[in-house]
Amino acid sequence: MQIDIITLFPEMFEGFFQYSILKRAQTKGFLSVRLINLRDYSLNKYGSVDDYAFGGGAGMVIQVEPLANCIEDLQKQTSYDEIIYTAPDGQMLNQSLSNTLSMKENLLILCGHYKGIDERIREHFVTREISIGDYVLSGGELAAAVISDSIARLIPGVLSDEQSALSDSFQDGLVAPAVYSRPADFRGWKVPEVLLCGDPKKIEAWQYENALERTKQRRPQLLEKQDM
Ligand code: ADE
Questions:
Q1: pLDDT, tens digit, for every residue of 63-79?
Q2: Can you tell me the distance from the alpha carbon of 152 to that of 159, in angstroms, rounded to the nearest whole number?
Q3: 86 lines ligand 1 (CB under 6 A)
Q4: Is 89 close to ligand 1, i.e. is its CB under 6 Å away?
Q5: Mean pLDDT of 94-99
Q6: Quick check: CB of 116 below 6 Å from ligand 1?
Q7: How far is the CA of 165 from the centre of ligand 1 (A)?
Q8: Could you give the residue range(s) of every CATH 1.10.1270.20 domain in the chain?
Q9: Counting atoms of ligand 1 from 1, which one is nearest the CA of 112?
Q10: pLDDT in tens, 160-197
């Protein structure tokens, strides 16, 4: 999969893509990430790409022309399955959307900044708008990083069997069960006996019950969405 990200701050992504699973996905050849600096498409020598909003009001708007030129330049080399704009008024990111996006080949993510991007880009280029929560971030970079991470770990082959994304929270509509590691007894705080019994069927049944119970307690609205 290729993820191209148009941003005013490519440096913000550098550490993020160089560690852990995102790094491994790239090293193993499952993921390729390209950061495109929108300032390279500035119409002036100062590198600015924003202007005042028509009609007034506080805050600058990312101009239509540099962004359109940038997207069209990228489209000459790549046919995108989705052009995603990160915005607080977009569709809420969830595991189901991440699963859908993980099956695509080429994604382009536009990071907003200031008051946002000129609406004409949303109308004429963007195929999907995604929010990562009901709060306003200073820019779309964190949202683009969150979206990329949640997608990349689902690409088949990226995670090993032990880390399988199938046991993630939300993957089966439930939050994940509690996990424990050695020692089995720490200050008298004991790991549930069944996890030490070695019987995979009993362990699986306990994990399912635990996940169900935790979902009821912590995220009951997840259960309302399914026929249980
Ligand atoms: N840009 C600013 N806030 C955002 C949010 N909550 N989700 C996605 N993009 C954003």
A1: 999 999 999 999 999 99
A2: 9
A3: yes
A4: no
A5: 96
A6: no
A7: 25
A8: 170-227
A9: 1
A10: 865 677 778 787 899 999 999 999 999 999 999 999 99
